[in-house]
Design brief:
The radius of gyration is 12 Å and the shape is globular. The termini are far apart. Strand 1 and strand 2 (about 30-35) form a beta hairpin. The chain has one helix and five strands, in the order H-E-E-E-E-E. The chain has a five-stranded antiparallel beta sheet with strand order 4-3-2-1-5, with no helix packed on it. About 10% of the residues lie in helices and about 55% in strands. It has one domain (about 5-75): SH3 type barrels.
Length: about 80
């Protein structure tokens, strides 16, 4: 691996504009297109949906998620 691909924020940069799955400490999950993030891993998702038991519970549009509530961010696997 090269130095520019070993940092966590580099992985998030590669995911910008792509659909990601975000899992929170309170067991909630959201799927949406990663639009922005900061050094605190606060994230903005577009076209966000709340997922419960693998099913879409509700469509939310644009959401801001505080970084201190996130436990996992992963590119969505299709």
């Amino acid at each position: 691996m090269t130095p520019e691909t070993t940092r966590p924020l580099d992985a998030l940069n590669r995911a910008k504009g792509k659909r990601v799955i975000v899992e929170l400490k309170n067991k909630k999950s959201f799927v949406g297109k990663l639009q922005a993030f900061d050094i605190h891993i606060n994230v903005v998702l577009e076209e966000a949906e709340e997922i419960v038991d693998g099913e879409v519970k509700r469509k939310l549009g644009v959401v801001f998620i505080r970084g201190d509530t996130i436990i996992i961010i992963s590119p969505e696997q299709k």
